[in-house]
Amino acid sequence: MWLKNMNTQTQSNRERIIKVAYQLFYTKGYNQTSFADVANELGISKGNLHYHFPSKGALLNTVIALRKQQIIEMFAQWDGEFSDAKDRLKRFIQMMINNEANLVRYGCPLGSLNVELGKDQRDLQGMSREMFDLYQHWLEKVFTQLDSKKSKARSLHLLSMTQGTAMMTYIYSDSKLLKDECNAINEWIDSL
Amino acid sequence: MWLKNMNTQTQSNRERIIKVAYQLFYTKGYNQTSFADVANELGISKGNLHYHFPSKGALLNTVIALRKQQIIEMFAQWDGEFSDAKDRLKRFIQMMINNEANLVRYGCPLGSLNVELGKDQRDLQGMSREMFDLYQHWLEKVFTQLDSKKSKARSLHLLSMTQGTAMMTYIYSDSKLLKDECNAINEWIDSL
DNA sequence: GTCTATAAGAAGATAGAC
DNA sequence: GTCTATCTTCTTATAGAC
Questions:
Q1: Residue A90 CA to its chain's centroid (Å)
Q2: Distance, angstroms, CA A75 to C1' C15?
Q3: What is the pTM of this model?
Q4: Nearest C-alpha in A relative to B160
């Protein structure tokens, strides 16, 4: 654990770049974020940025890899906290509620990135869809605890509902809509 | 009717520009579409484009105005074809099925544009959200035929479901998912 | 590892000829 | 109305000094 930063008291510039890029890609969008934006935010030079990441695509790749790792760790923690399938599913919905402020202002970080990249950069979209796959597979696994035959269809249905909820919350900047839709989703989970 | 093109045998360049921009903003995204893209597609010069539309924002404005007009005409036609509330709602869902190929390849034209512009161009997002408002108001009016108290909440819920469906259909390029989710939405409409 | 300088190209937009 | 030419700024990326 402490091995990570053994040689430095604080984060390395490389780590800082990834974190700032992660944030800016989410809040401004990937195409609307330039190397200059990232460099200015950190107070470093663009040349330095190119030393750590030869291209913008390489930076996105690294950002997504970090995000995937965080998602995997999140599921591991949830699985440790809850064993009941419905409790696990509701923990997923609770994540949306907890993330209200960001959803209202910036939308779903997975969905918006995927839409942006899918338009004319299919290669990059493939990378971003892998984050979606992590959610889909975890949900399918959890739904299998309830009914293995319906698990895949239900996982896609739940993702569809959460994506729609995130989209509407974002478009209308409406946190009440978020809560109402999350309540409806939780009732659906209870009804299974 | 024929007055529109009284002086020309075919479309004017201005009309052609709007149509091509409409298409490219949808398929490539607004930020990823340049004046050069539009001009090349039509075989005209960039200077010509700037004669008709002084700025890119002005072009987007005109494209959205056209789109809003088409949406209004679509609702008028549906209202003429169906008087029953549930028939009208199902016509809305049928539109998604009819548009399968585009949804699979490019996603929802309203949702994706709104997400893109909302990231850091809130002024432009306002224009694009007006298209959403047209749908929301029409749906609320139709739901009022069933139950005036629940009409607004139901209109938002239906939009949420359709946005989620469009998003998942797009991300996984999955037309079967589109049909399954549309069937589920139609069942929900029947249950009201 | 980090900087400055610079290339090479694309973008939105303007000026002026036809 | 349409064109070519040009301007300015931004963007990704490279080269070379420290």
A1: 17
A2: 61
A3: 0.95
A4: A164
